[in-house]
Design a protein that fits this description.
The complex is a heterodimer of chains A (261) and B (640). Chain A is of the alpha+beta class and 261 residues long. In chain A, 36% of the residues lie in helices and 11% in strands. Among the domains of chain B are: 271-403, Alpha-Beta Complex (Flavocytochrome C3, Chain A, domain 1); 476-605, Methane Monooxygenase Hydroxylase, Chain G, domain 1, CATH 1.20.58. Chain B has helices spanning 18-25, 31-34, 46-58, 96-106, 113-132, 165-182, 248-255, 319-323, 333-345, 362-368, 370-388, 443-463, 476-494, 501-516, 522-542, 554-578, 602-605; strands spanning 38-42, 61-65, 83-84, 158-159, 186-189, 192-200, 203-211, 217-221, 224-227, 260-261, 266-272, 295-299, 316-317, 357-360, 397-406, 409-410, 423-425, 607-612, 621-626. The chains are: A alpha+beta (261), B alpha+beta (640). At the A-B interface, helix 1, helix 2 and helix 3 of A face helix 3, helix 5, helix 6, helix 11 and helix 12 of B.
Chain lengths: 261, 640
């Protein structure tokens, strides 16, 4: 198969970038999108030109590294699919394909298609865990968890942290990402003691990191390669409101100094 | 010269008491003193993230390094099937003792009894801890944890979270690590790659790392260095490993004096999607758990190209069930892989390349219904369809073995310390627990046992005897190591060629697969030893890194890793050549029984082989750690 690629090239974080057009020919339909880029890169190297830089690693759809907007869609046209699992058989021969990095305020471009996504880590650091020290746990069967709750928690926990939800959102919001982690622990008894502290910490961190707000476009769930359902955002809002209304954590976190006197 | 002999410093006493006693006897660092020690952890997979988090919980100051943009991307994330533990929740006769025995037997009696017993004991604590972390393991309708079976076991002891167990366990460890980052106890260095170990005064002093975004070379000093840098199956180019997985950190440590154990022990996983096209970049694993319900077969007749549906039951050969009736489709990985290769070599392989066998669910779908199979393996079926474009609900999957895991690694003693004092290795990066073949669902168990439960105890034992180091960044050892790294990078950048690094890597992979892969023999290994230096020479004169050091240069990163593979390959080959026996994944065609099974040579090779670096111009030294079997009797593995 033959394609015409328009790829975003940008050498450094603070330099201007732009689209460069590359024709590629003789591509097997059984190559993945990244393998197709590998072929292009080999040809570029053969000419002594710097290859297109992109994040990638496991190439089986689970590490969350690969991240590119293909013809306007994060991870391309196929639902529930990461870029590395997108195969060229899903494109028509002779197609023009535009490839660009995630675009969001919280994700600065580092080079070509590579962006900095540590803002997502910051959100997790603010509370995306159960604070149990190694060695402290009781026997695993001390608490039972209803299968339905465990399955729903799994559905939320399936997030791979790629950031497609942010890239798809017109506001650059990380609500779906944050909601998935909050929901996972809200659904499991192990997550309950820190429930209020967690949701408030994570939402504040999300705002601090430069992510926008949610205005219910649902583009995030559409783009999510793991098809995390959008209803988790409603749960996040519920968790946040409950925490704000009923929890002392919120007051303490918001206005720690006013109580000093 | 006599072969040097290494001592693993295994505690005295009866096997079941060793770890308990050792924990009671190791020296401690007081809580107020812990914060005076700085520990470097390289790698953030299951072993690295769990170790960094647990050390920080204890009060040590931790610097944690990953070459990824986030700790959550480490390749542990891709482990699908599950994690073993001797809980015996199924009442099917499991016990610590049985998990221990299965693991030693699975490893073909080339692992250390004391380590494996400890691993089996700790397996239960891991499940407790991971459940407490909120990991959504599969559960039954009563709310209890579910289990399934993996190869080499006749009990159901594998805990799982659909086909994403590694991801869920890693996110648990990543959460624990993130909590310590938030508390300021861990300093996280992302997109930072360790390029050398710094050794001075007979101990590890720190590392040299390159900041990938701008090429800056940094020195980091610490009281101890922990390598959790994974395995090296990527040396075969096509493997199930992530593309960035590499041997650089452990190989560099080897060059700095850490002895390397059993480098040739690499596992070939039997159930992967076969290679199909040129330019393919990796082989995707299909979880071994599929073998719980899938039946493996090939046509009876060679050259039978009919569609699988047109081949009658009587014309099929369910060869694993036929050859190993007791374990059948759940035979260990090394045996299943070799059997697949044997039927393909006999011309009975299926698919366009003839390099494949069927994994058939028709019987299971008929017996259990589509819904149950979908619940158990739905995401794996989808993944197969996505990659191959074929529907596994309609026709059997095609699978073939692929390089997957390194049992070999840096040699460590019972405390997980390498031969360089202050340098520890954990997880896949060490060699310790799997002998010559790892059983399924044991890698996650080992990574987390090392990181959560073993290293945090044994590291203190080392530090208790050492006063905290003042930052020794100016020490000569750091300058020397940094200069060497800068010079090497300069050399890479100056190569004026046009050959893509991948091209050389692919050829190295082909060479290693051919001569040092699923089966090996003296002539082939000799040939590999002759050919590797030429390929290395070609690399150093013909590649192009297409840019400089002071930029985000992804080709330069890759070139450094392939350069190390080109040296490490020789060590693997030498190890395979010297081990004149077949054991586990190491199959020397000269050493097999009449029916083609591995023939061990316990009289001469019941030992760990260690290799010590002697300089670029000299051959490495081989040493041994004799393996003693006080508890188990050395026996021929029998899965029939």
């Amino acid at each position: 198969m033959d394609f015409t690629l328009h790829i975003w090239r940008q050498r450094r974080a603070n330099e201007a970038g732009g689209f460069v057009t590359y024709p590629v020919q003789g591509i097997s339909p059984d190559l993945s999108f990244l393998e197709m880029l590998d072929v292009l890169n080999k040809r570029l190297v053969g000419r002594g030109e710097p290859p297109v830089a992109f994040d990638h690693d496991c190439r089986e759809g689970i590490c969350g590294s690969c991240a590119m907007v293909i013809n306007g869609d994060p991870h391309g046209p196929l639902p529930g699919t990461t870029t590395c699992q997108l195969y060229m058989r899903h494109f028509s021969d002779g197609a023009e394909i535009t490839v660009e990095p995630w675009r969001a305020r919280a994700f600065p471009v580092l080079r070509d298609l590579i962006v900095q996504r540590s803002a997502l880590d910051a959100v997790i650091q603010a509370g995306g865990y159960v604070s149990v020290n190694t060695g402290a746990a009781p026997d695993a069967h001390t608490l039972t968890v209803a299968k339905e709750a465990a399955d729903a928690a799994f559905e939320a926990a399936a997030c791979i942290g790629c950031g497609a939800c942010v890239a798809a959102c017109p506001n650059g919001s990380a609500m779906l990402f944050t909601a998935a982690k909050v929901a996972q622990f809200a659904l499991l008894p192990q997550g309950h003691p820190e429930r209020a502290r967690r949701v408030i910490g994570m939402v504040e961190s999300m705002d601090d990191a430069g992510f926008g707000n949610c205005s219910n476009h649902y583009a995030c769930a559409e783009a999510c390669p793991k098809e995390i359902p959008v209803h988790f955002i409603a749960r996040l809002n519920r968790e946040f409101l409950t925490a704000a209304l009923t929890s002392r954590e919120f007051v303490e976190l918001e206005r720690p100094l006013e109580h000093e006197e | 010269m006599d072969t040097p002999v290494f001592d693993a410093r295994i505690p005295a006493g009866p096997l079941p008491d060793k770890w308990h006693r050792h924990r009671a006897e190791v020296k401690l660092v007081s809580p107020t003193n812990k914060r005076r020690y700085r520990v470097i952890v390289v790698g953030t997979g299951l072993a690295g993230a769990s170790a960094a988090a647990s050390l920080a919980e204890l009060g040590y100051r931790v610097d944690c390094f990953t070459f990824h943009d986030s700790p959550r991307r480490a390749h542990s994330v891709a482990a699908q099937g599950g994690i073993n533990a001797a809980k015996n929740y199924r009442n099917d006769g499991d016990s610590v003792e049985r998990l221990f025995r299965d693991t030693v037997k699975g490893g073909d009696y080339r692992s250390r009894e004391a380590n494996v017993y400890r691993l089996a004991e700790i397996s239960n604590q891991i499940i407790d801890h991971c459940v407490a972390q909120g990991i959504p393991f599969a559960r039954d309708y009563a709310g209890y944890l579910d289990n399934r079976s993996f190869g080499g076991a006749q009990v159901s002891r594998t805990f799982y979270a659909r086909g994403q167990t590694g991801q869920q366990l890693l996110l648990g460890a990543y959460g624990a690590l993130s909590r310590q980052v938030h508390g300021g106890q861990v300093q996280l260095h992302t997109r930072s790659e360790m390029l050398d170990l710094v050794v001075g005064g007979g101990r590890a002093l720190g590392i040299i790392a390159r900041r990938l975004t701008d090429g800056r070379i940094e020195r980091h000093a610490a009281d101890a260095v922990v390598l959790a840098t994974g395995g090296y199956s990527n040396i075969y180019y096509l493997s199930t490993n992530a593309l960035a997985s590499n041997v650089t950190a452990s190989y560099r440590a080897y060059r700095r004096g850490a002895w390397f154990a059993n480098p040739s022990f690499t596992q070939i996983h039997p159930t992967c999607i076969p290679a199909s096209v040129e330019h393919q970049s990796k082989l995707t694993l299909m979880s071994e758990s599929l073998r719980n319900d899938g039946r493996i077969w090939v046509p009876q007749a060679a050259g039978d190209t009919r569609r699988p549906a047109d081949i009658a039951e009587a014309e099929r050969d369910y060869y694993l069930e036929r050859m190993y009736p007791a374990y059948g489709n759940l035979s260990p990985r090394d045996i299943s892989s070799r059997a697949a290769k044997a039927v393909c070599d006999a011309g009975r392989g299926v698919g366009p390349t003839g390099q494949g066998v069927y994994l058939d669910f028709a019987e299971a779908i008929g017996r259990l219904g589509r819904r149950v199979i979908s619940d158990r393996y739905g995401n794996l079926f989808e993944m197969y369809q996505r990659i191959t474009g074929e529907d596994p609900w309609q026709a059997p999957m095609r699978i073939f073995p692929a390089a997957h895991y390194s049992m070999g690694g840096l040699w460590v003693d019972y405390d997980l310390m390498t031969t360089v004092p202050g340098l520890f290795a954990i997880g896949e990066a060490n060699f310790s627990d799997h002998g010559a073949n790892r059983l399924g669902a044991s890698a996650l168990m080992q990574g987390l046992a090392d990181g959560y439960f073993i290293l945090p105890q044994t590291l203190g034992h080392f530090l208790a005897d050492q006063p905290p180091l003042a930052a020794q960044l100016d020490a000569g050892a750091f300058s020397q190591a940094q200069a060497a790294i800068e010079q090497r990078i300069q050399r890479l950048v100056s190569i004026d060629g046009r050959t893509p690094v991948e091209t050389i890597h692919r050829r190295l992979g082909e060479l290693m697969s051919e001569h040092c892969g699923m089966s090996r023999n003296r002539a082939g290994l000799q040939r590999a030893l002759d050919e590797i230096p030429a390929l290395r020479e070609e690399f150093w004169t013909s590649i192009c890194v297409c840019g400089g050091n002071e930029e985000f240069n992804v080709v330069l990163e890759k070139a450094g890793r392939v350069a190390d593979y080109l040296e490490f390959a020789e060590l693997m080959v030498r190890d395979a050549l010297e081990r004149e026996e077949s054991c586990g994944a190491h199959f020397r065609t000269e050493h097999q029984t009449e029916d083609g099974e591995a023939r061990r040579n316990d009289a001469d090779f019941a030992h760990v082989a260690l290799w010590g670096f002697q300089g670029d111009q000299a051959a490495p030294l081989r040493a041994v750690e004799p393996l003693r079997f006080d508890y188990l009797k050395l026996a021929e593995r029998n899965y029939k």
